[in-house]
Structure prediction request, 268 residues.
Amino acid sequence: MQLLKGLAVLGVTALVTAAPLHPRTSNVTSSEPVFVNLDPKIPSAGTSPAPGTTPQQGPANEPHFLKPSPSPQQASQQASAPEPAAAAPKPSATLPVILIPPPADAPPGTGPSIFTPTPDRPSPSPSPPPPLSNGGRGDLNPDLVPSFGVIPNTNRDAQQPGSCDGFTGAEIVLIPCSCPPDRDLFLSRLRDAIAAGSFVDEPVSFSNDAADDSPATNRVRADAMLVVLQSISGVRGVGCPAASAPNFLEMQRSGVRINGTFIAGGPA
Prediction:
């Protein structure tokens, strides 16, 4: 009996010893990122420092994040992606600088006045307002209206009390120092005139199409701006003279929209 028990114990022991040990299944797949320690200054667990050295005190087990390599399909898509095209440079234009000699009775040493026109190229709106026609309502595109070209109160009272310098594009003339008007007020009057199709019984037409920058269209725009400017009070003929807006006059003459600035002469 004891011999049989001994044989049974030996048989069970042999079965346990021969059973394969199944390793623990890893929960890290090939597509997941892996944290590894790549810093040689920070010893990994179970590594002892070299003799005669002091272990570095740093962030313990500071991990480095390794991203999985992109698949062949992702690499092909990245390689075939087109690079953004560079913006085309804007064309440049040079306009003449106008020098106006000082008047004969100017004090000695007075320098010439200067009118420096610069091309007006507003950036196109991604969705410009629709064109306006007589009797239509809509928002006026202010980019189509150049600056006046005269700074208010230029040479105030220099030649006559209450008068300042204006510019016709060829000569200096006196204008009221209240001119040119406030730009926001002018744009509001112009917007109303375009919607009504007239201003102080004068017909008004203005294309609000920013893509149309032809000389003929710009001249019609300038006509509308000058009508409103010279009767901006709402009474026919009561407003600011055309010399308070030389940019409007130049636009009417040449059909080119510019933003020039008249600078009165001073000591040379």
The first helix runs from residue 2 to 18. The two ends are 134 Å apart (CA to CA). Residues 140-252 form one domain. The beta strands are 34-36, 64-66, 98-100, 113-116, 163-167, 172-176, 198-199, 202-203, 261-263.
